[in-house]
Design brief:
By secondary structure, the protein is mainly beta. Helices cover 9% and strands 66% of the residues.
Length: 169
């Protein structure tokens, strides 16, 4: 239910923007996931690659600041997730932008007991507007919450590297 409420809030934000101040688009690309588990003095990490694709809106508040909510599907190995980033884009030049913002991740897989299927992340990166329609982005995202919800002193977190291209229309 929380997922649907957040998705509804995101969509209302997208469609409440004045049409002349908003662009819509699609994007996709490479995804690298690095998961780490820390318990006592032991730390284990692993990384796997996959892809992501989805839709976005660009809400233009000024020439220097845009807000870009996204709805992305991600797949790594046989695991799927839905990413919901809301990225602030600060334009350093006409084409180069600095990106920062929160991201929610919802696992579409069955989640074991003592784990949560929802992540709260912080994303940062750079984007380049190649043309007025085509752009490319690189982002690194760090999970803030612990995926392990049990009683033991265990920390389970993921980090994401995305490299992608998109098209606005």
């Amino acid at each position: 239910m929380k997922k649907l409420m957040f998705l509804g809030l995101l969509m209302s934000l997208i469609f409440s923007a004045n049409a002349q101040d908003a662009d819509f688009g699609v994007k996709g690309g490479y995804l690298n996931v690095r998961a780490s588990i820390k318990a006592d003095d032991i730390s284990i990490s692993a990384s796997e690659s996959g892809f992501y694709l989805g839709v976005l809106a660009v809400l233009k508040f000024s020439d220097k600041f845009h807000l870009q909510p996204e709805l992305l599907y991600a797949r790594v190995s046989e695991a799927d997730a839905i990413f919901l980033p809301v990225i602030g884009k600060i334009y350093l030049t006409d084409k180069l932008n600095l990106q920062v913002g929160p991201q929610l991740v919802f696992s579409t897989q069955e989640v074991p007991d003592d784990f949560t299927g929802t992540e709260f992340d912080l994303a940062g990166g750079l984007g380049i507007d190649i043309t007025s329609v085509i752009f490319t982005e690189v982002r690194y995202t760090v999970q803030i919450n612990n995926s392990y919800t049990g009683q033991e002193d265990i920390k389970v977190r993921g980090n994401y590297l995305t490299l992608g291209v998109g098209f606005r229309f």
